[in-house]
Amino acid sequence: MMYQIFGLLFVLPVVVYSAACSFTYDNHRVKQRVTYGVKNGTLSFRFVLTGIKSGTTGWTGIGFGSSMHSGIDTIMLRLWNDQIFITDEYVKGHKSPSPDKVNNVRVYSTKVTDGVMVAAFSRSVHSYEQPYDASLVKCSPWKFIIGLNRMSSNGHARHHSVTPIHRIVCLDNCMV
């Protein structure tokens, strides 16, 4: 009898459900939600930030890496004159990030309407441009930049006003 039950465990199909993952921040003034998921090696994002005053200029984004001292691969979102610009950048140390030589971020849509900024974009899970692109295979440290932060008149990011929220993200749990 015991061998029959044990044998059934290897015959029964196992169903695994996967879904997109998300990060949410809400302090009643700024609401931010980043939904992300992987399909065929591509990591897709939907970024929503609410509570933006008309005419606001600033930057936000997502960083991949342990610390600014060791270097952070970033996807930067800049809001300027009601337009959103999304770039693949790298920062090491406490300075403004610099654009990668190869922009690995693909932008699908952006819009700003009634104080809500929405952007859909993607990048490969695998790293191609060393040392600037972080490999996101398996589990890795991510930094979620909160709200819109100050930038200079020429678009350079100034220091973030809120400490980024650090998460270990395991993309194996975020398959779509």
Automatic annotation (TrEMBL):
Chain ranges of the DOMON domain: 30-149
Entry-linked Pfam families: DOMON
SUPFAM superfamilies hit by this protein: CBD9-like (SSF49344)
InterPro entries, alphabetized: DOH_DOMON, DOMON_domain
Name of protein: DOMON domain-containing protein
Keyword list, A-Z: Signal
Record PROSITE patterns: DOMON
UniProt signal peptide: 1-20
